[in-house]
Predict the structure.
Amino acid sequence: MIDPRSHGALGRSIHNHQQELNTIPEIPKEKYILKCTSACAGCSDSLALRYVLKAAGPDTVLVVPACCTSVIQGTYPNTAFNVPVYNIAFASAAACASGMSNAFRAAGKKTNVIAYAGDGGTLDIGIQAMSGAFERGTDFLYICYDNEAYGNTGMQRSGGTPLGARTTTTPAGKTEGKKDIDAIIAAHDPPYQATACAAYPQDIFKKVKKALTFRGPTFIHILAPCPPGWRYSTEKSVEMGKLAVKSGMWVLYEREYGKLTIGAQSKAAMKKPIALEEYLAPQGRFKGIDTKTVEILRQRIAKNYAKLQAEEATP
Amino acid sequence: MKKISTGNKAVAEAVKQVVPAVVAAYPITPQTEIVEQIAEFVSSGELKSRYIAVESEHSAMAACIGASITGVRTFTATSSHGLLYMHEMTNWAAGARLPIVMATVNRSLGPGWNIWAEHTDALQERDTGWLQVYVSTVQEAYDATLMAFRIAEHNDVLLPVMVNLDGFLLSHIMQPLDTVDIGDFIPPIHLPHAIDVKNPAGYGCLTAPDQQVMFRWDIEKSIRDSAKVIEETEKEFTKRFGRKYGMTEDYQCADAEVIIVAMGTLGKEAEVAVDLLRKEGIKAGSMRLRWLRPFPKLNLVGKQVVVIDRDYSFGRGGILATEIMAQTKEEVFSVIAGLGGQEVTYEDMADFVRKRRMGTEFWFGVKNHV
């Protein structure tokens, strides 16, 4: 276990996460995502964000780079979001949030600064600014909602697109695997990081609440199934997210001061994961995927989970 | 207080007195001394600012934007490739109507690696909506930086301001500097559209064409209005601290038949060339353009105009010459001189005037170029 003091005693508290995650949180009735968003039908990003903001509350500013969320807000002079949203250029969410957080803290304000970016804005074009902001110990929460492609521009491959998935720029299926952004974040040694999934909104709520109790940079990576991008019917977003966890394609975990805990949902699922095909088959993006690629994906799932288990077991 | 300072330190000194809440900056030659000096002020407690040592210039401007929209004062400095790297965000800063002040230490662009003075870096930012002032002495670097905050933050402006000083020729030159007690010369910042969590708003949302036109026009309107604010600010500065500035600095122009127009240190050096030419009986004058944006109305009627550009727009011409030709019907002799830090003396400048061929372009140092 990494000594919390190695983070300059930045943490405000260390929680008993296991106990916390096993309880059902009381979700506030306040809504910060109002009606009339311009989200696609079945959009799980807006579902996730609804719970992110319920957890963060009204003293929050979202910093949003180019991504689906820039569109979902609606068109000027209207907005469907009931917290201040600062839209910023693609590569610069974390840098902008860095300046904002410093300005608020200089003014003695505790306002939550949440950079809310897609996988393209995080894993690809925004990675430099994000790495810089984490290295500098910026007091903010960075959330990457990951629909595994550039959704806003019509589904082009990103560093987050998994092996074998068809996108408009990988029409025959992606030949490379998904970039492990969480490992890259872990290398920055933040006080708190977590993975989450839009199909588990209570889990998102709890993780955001928790992340915001730390001072310093925190990170939550939310898998956000996308009906038009993944090519499944719009009512199945929650089901897709659950299948991702149940197949082990997505693992829920937290890393607090370097100590990893695999989420109860993933632990239960990985005792007997569902057949990977159950996750792949309903998605048009994996149509025609060959058995060899499926086998590689299966091996990667096993390898990834074994790695996480080994880390969790490390005292 | 009188002292001796470099141009860079003079800028840092002004920033110290203005106390931005946030300074976000990245080092680059020949600007580095500014950010080092500010870091030193912050570290020693002389300056109560948050210093964000960002990982790139793109992030420097993004961080200034993020800080500025909360309603606080911000500053950064850069040069050359750093400025080009933040180009996306300089557009954003102006579009978002944020009164960020930036010092640009003008330097040539690669390739090759050339770290010396040239104006092409800042001139590539000409169309971004930033106000731009070019200075010529260490004292002016200090004075212009102070005034930049007051101008940028004025409610009729609310646009970012860039203070330009020549790399090495000014950034690293030691000259006398008289610092002042600024008192209430720069009022507390009030950003009318600052983020307020109690009154949530979306910033930079999806915008339809008709509205976008209005946002663009608003910038243009404010940059036009800024001329008056600049004038008022410079007058107030003279009243309080004695030193006088204008949109241009005119020297012996009234009865001149030929006028040298240039920016930065070349514009100052031109005054010496004018003295030399006058001794020879040539009625010369010089006009140092201080503000490039807003572009002032230049009084050049009936004059022969020799424009010296330490910059170039390939396929078109000297950028300053082109700007002037667009405004006046007078004939221009366009001299391209000083690129990549090329040495240009007052004697060279006098020679440009003596050998002027109106209506043509001349590249100093290039043989058989016509």
Chain A has one domain: 4-313. Residues 1-16 of chain A have pLDDT under 50 and may be disordered. DSSP finds 13 helices and eight strands in chain A. Chain A touches chain B at residues 58-61, 63, 70-71, 73-77, 79, 81-89, 91-92, 94-107, 111, 128-129, 131-132, 135-136 (CB under 8 Å).
